[in-house]
Write the structure tokens for this entry.
Amino acid sequence: MLMLSFIPAEWIAYAIHAIFVIGVGGVIIGTVGSKLPFVSTYGHIVKGIAGVFLIAGLFLEGYNYASKSWVEAAKEYEKKVKVAEEKSKNQNVKIVEKVVKEIEIVRETANENKQVIKDVVAKDLDNQCSLPNSAVMLHDSASKNEVSRSAQGTDGGTSDVKASQVLEVVVDNYATCYEVRSKLKGWQEWYRTQKQIYEEVK
């Protein structure tokens, strides 16, 4: 089969047609020309050889026809795949740009809120509110998804951590939550679009 790949397809098609024609011609000559001296003597041999050519020709003609259909189908499928790949790339770029933009907005909002804390909220909040050590320990444990058992054993003293600092951490945490939400929505949109593109190819 490797050797056949170097032979032009037209030549192969001509050879298949020739085998079929030889087979048909040989069967006709062996059957109809039985009255001729040479053919009558070797008629059964001619018909036998021609029959082999005819069967081989029929098989090869069918194979060649099917091969052309497969090749055409494969080419059509390749075209669809190329279109799908291009659509996929375009959709990926759009989704990434959308997610990046959403995350930028989330970060800008968080930074503006933190600036408000520093400029407006921090002074009054820190003067009016002091955090006990147990509250800080509870916050730290919750950030690690742990139950704060050590908070119960604290002396109840005031922590050096300011309320405005905790508020900034809360703002950052909310921002992180919205970032993750945007990424998750991006992955979901990516899956839906890729699935649709794949189904169009099928």
About this structure: The chain has four helices and no strands. The chain has one domain: 7-201. Helices lie at 9-32, 37-128, 133-143, 163-201.
